[in-house]
Amino acid sequence: MDVAILQVDQWDSRACRSIHIWTRHDENARVISTTERAESVNRKNQGLSSAIGAGYRVVSQKIRYWLPSAVDRRIRVVAWLSLVTEILIVGTGGAVRLTGSGLGCPTWPTCVAGSLVPTPEMGLHGVIEFGNRLMTGLIGIIAIAAVVLLWRLRTERKDLFTLAVILGVGVLAQALVGGVTVLTGLNPFIVGFHFMASLIMVCIATVLVHRVYLPSGPRALVVPVGFAGLAHATSFVVALTVVMGVVTTASGPHSGDAEAGRTGFNAELLEHLHAWPGYATLVLTIVLLAASVRGKLPVRKLVVTLLVVELVQIVVGLLQANLGLPPVLVGLHMVLACVLAAAMTAVVLNLKAPTTLTDRVSETTHEHARS
């Protein structure tokens, strides 16, 4: 009996040891399996990270290869698109104002509460105002394109890159001013500021267009100092003419909405105050043209362009004043103001040229003189 009990105890002990050994084997197997799975996951993650990194490097290299390493046709096209759209948005903004659609979208940044786009209840006024907002988006896309295309040249052509960034920031600023204009019920002073800011954007875009055709570096006068002084004086009178035109328009009948306020100034008196510097601009431009032709200055063609724009602007201004301010002529007068600002800016910019170009011109002149 004791022997039997002893055998059973030995069998139980051997069984327990076997179970313990198998349990340890199972635990080790599970640990090994878990470790292998973790290592497998790590290998997959490392492989995925390597693939993403390699893909990023390939894409970045392709983008870098695609971006211009020198000013090329793409940059020039985008610069011109920036200038043209900056002028066009003044036309669409004028359409908003002259059709009484200034509050066609009564909220901002949405068009109407709960909707980014105009609803059928907003009618044609909502469509016109929303179309003008879409123009802002288009100008923003062009500004971003300019910054991207000039990214690789941001050190070599810092002037171009800075102008592109300013235009991009200007789009955002103008959008905010537009929102304030709507939220203040078309305050005439804010509307006028909005228009003046658009003119400044046109001038900056003109500078960008001018610079993309020239090398970087120091610049020197290519006209006599007296002519340069007269050109700057003319630009000041042009600016004064535009400012007085903005104040005159803000005091006139086209407010953008039937309930929008006006400045309260005497519109008839302001018309004269607007016309006088306009005529002074014309006289100064004629003097500039005579001096440039006589001296065979390189800016004479641009001065001719400036004079033509001024003559057309004066004719349109006289017609709108004598025909009761028809909306079409008022809108054309606004767009021509932008063209005038661009033309005057171009004249001032071409008073100087990069010294590398002026040196070449001087060398050519001396060679002709010796021959």
Automatic annotation (TrEMBL):
It is a multi-pass membrane protein. GO terms for molecular function: metal ion binding; oxidoreductase activity. Its main location: membrane. Pathway: Porphyrin-containing compound metabolism. Pfam families: COX15-CtaA. It is found in: Membrane. This is Cytochrome c oxidase assembly protein subunit 15.
